[in-house]
Amino acid sequence: MHKVSLFRSIQLKFIVIFILLLLVTIQIIGAYFVRGLETELRENFEESIEATVGIMEVNLKQAFSKDRSDDNPDTPSLEDEVQDIVQVNNTRDVKIQVMNMQSRIIASNDTTGGSNIGKKTTKDFITNVLRNGNENKSNVYDEENNRIYRRAVPIYDDEHTQTGALYVEASLEGVYSQLNDINSVFLKGSALAITISAFLGILVARAITRPIQEMRGQAQKMAREDFSQKVNVYGKDEIGQLAESFNDLNAKLKHSRALTEEERRKLSLVLSNMSDGVIATDRNGYITLLNDAAGMLIHQETEEAEGKFLLDVLQLEDRSVDISELPDSGSMIIDFSDENTIFEIRAKFSTITDEDQDVSGFITVLSDVTEQQEIERERREFVSNVSHELRTPLTTMRSYIEALTEGAWEDKTIAPKFLQVTQNETDRMIRMVNDLLQLSRMDNRSESLHQEQVDFINFFHGVIDRFEMNVSEHITLERDLPEGSLDVWLDQDKMVQVLDNVISNAVKYSPEGGVIHFDAAVQNGQLLASVTDEGTGIPYDKVDKIFDRFYRADKARSRKLGGTGLGLAITREIVEAHQGSIWAKSKEGKGTTILFTLPLENQKRRGD
Ligand code: ATP
Ligand code: MG
User: Fold this and answer.
1) 546 pocket-lining for ligand 1 (C-beta < 6 Å)
2) How does the average pLDDT of the chain come out, rounded?
3) Where is the Histidine kinase domain (predicted)?
4) 558 Cα to the center of ligand 1, angstroms
């Protein structure tokens, strides 16, 4: 989590504001208080000095007015009396001097640096009083830079003549040191108050910022899609309400995320279980999503294909298709065939638009249409084959009939031959049309099998016996059939058709003196029968095709032998209708084996 440094934290801001407020308050209070206290203390001090001065003024006036003629020998001298008065009013830190009109100090309590009595004062502050008879007072700094309060008053006798001056000098340092003491107490108090309030500030800030910090942490978690926790609600105030709204928001986000998540899961489940391939791209045609089916169809790993260009992946780049011109909800067939396999895909395109109808991407749905295309192709081929097969006998017939009409009918030797040919061709056509009809009925499942329980060994012997009677002496039939019986559930007429076809092919393609071998056995719980000849064989790459309609391995030879190429096709349909399968093994020039299986009756019962 990104941590906020202490210097930027809201907590510190709270504490600083708190302390600043307190400082300003204390400063203002302190300034008023100290100023008031100073004035008060000084006034008190000056008043007390003034009181002393007042008392001394009266006493000195009396002393100066006394008659000191020789008639009163008991009266002490002026100097002594005045000195007494000074001593009586002597206080610590207060200097008192009394001057006569000649500026001589006649009494003093100042003994620093020896007695100064009898000396002439030079201070302007005093001589001014002596000269003018006016009072004087001032606050100054003395030589030692101490604050002092000076006061000088004139002294009169009973006749109101000025007889001298009184000078009082008091140090104000006591007052100021008292003030300093008070100030220091005040400062200590302030410091204590600030410390306590800073501490309180921390507590208050904590209380306020804790929910905010919690919400901040929660918001960061929510940004990481973690909606598991809630924040604590500490009260009903704005922050409490904010926390409540926050929890609400959290719950709603959690819910909507769960919904989207579910939708996403559903979508991905649908996509991964679809047999159709789905490719989603952005507006430029780069793949953003691809399901497994699509990956399989276009032979690309899902992760590998993401980010690739759609047209590259669909191998459309050389078809000069523009991504923006892809047909909306149109489709195209894309040929993915290589030399060995045919593989065709139908791609359906649709565009995704946003609210403003701007294209935001494309969805391509892919489906494998190889089989469909194959069937389509087979159908077309079939029609052309039928037309072709019918045209050959028809043209032959027409030329013979033309010859006959042009006079050949009169020729007793040629006419019957020609008529024989036309009859053969007609037979061939009828046979072919009958074969086609049968195939078509089987295709449409309109011909039902009349199945019954038959011993296949016995049945097989019967069919071979019939052939043995007709086949030329040059061909040997060899049976390798087991003793006993093998019951099969089959339509006898149809199965006769199957064996007729397979055996007649074997006979047809067998050379003079060839051997045809018949086999029957039980394999994997099924009846496996086979007919092997020593004939021409079928080329390796054509073995599987001989069961296709109209397919003849060697066209010229087969046609000469009167084949239509439908025999094995019908055979296969019949065997498959019996839940069996048929296939061929062959070596060119060595011979051919046709094998087919049929479900055994008892096995089938058990299976039911
Ligand atoms: P039809 O059976 O309709 O008279 P057909 O015998 O030519 O005509 P199919 O029985 O379907 O047609 O056989 C298809 C082709 O398979 C034949 O034309 C032949 O080329 C080849 N074929 C079938 N059986 C053999 C075989 N035993 N030996 C060699 N080629 C065979
Ligand atoms: Mg045949």
Assistant:
1) yes
2) 87
3) 385-602
4) 7
pLDDT tens-digit profile of 465-502? 999 988 888 899 999 999 988 999 999 999 999 999 99
- Which CATH code, of 3.40.50.1110, 1.10.287.130, 2.30.30.140, 1.10.357.20, is assigned to 374-443? 1.10.287.130
Q: Taking the CB of residue 121, how many other CB atoms lie within 10 A of it?
A: 18
User: Does 274-368 carry CATH code 3.30.450.20?
Assistant: yes
Take atom 4 of ligand 1 and give the residue whose Cα is closest.
Answer: 563
Q: What is the pLDDT of residue 607?
A: 41
Distance CA 404, CA 427 (A): 19
Report helix, strand or coil for 519. Answer: strand
pLDDT of residue 575: 95
**What's the average model confidence in pLDDT over 392-407?**
92
Residue carrying structure tokens 């039902």: 448
**Pick from 245, 253, 193, 268: nearest CA to 223:** 253
- Check pocket membership of 361 for ligand 1, CB cut-off 6 A: no
Identify the residue whose C-alpha is closest to ligand 1 atom 27.
506
SS3 380: helix
Q: Which residue has the tokens 């040059």?
A: 474
Residues 111-128: pLDDT tens digits?
Answer: 776 678 888 888 888 888
Q: How far, in Å, CA of 201 to CA of 188, rounded? A: 19
Q: Where are the domains of the chain?
A: 11-178, 274-368, 374-443, 452-603
- Ligand closest to the CA atom of residue 586: 1
For the Cβ of 591 lying below 6 angstroms from any atom of ligand 1, the answer is no
**What are 280's two structure tokens?**
């989603």
Task: Name the residue among 275, 281, 267, 283 with its Cα closest to residue 313.
Answer: 281
Least confident of 147-161, 215-229, 328-342: 328-342
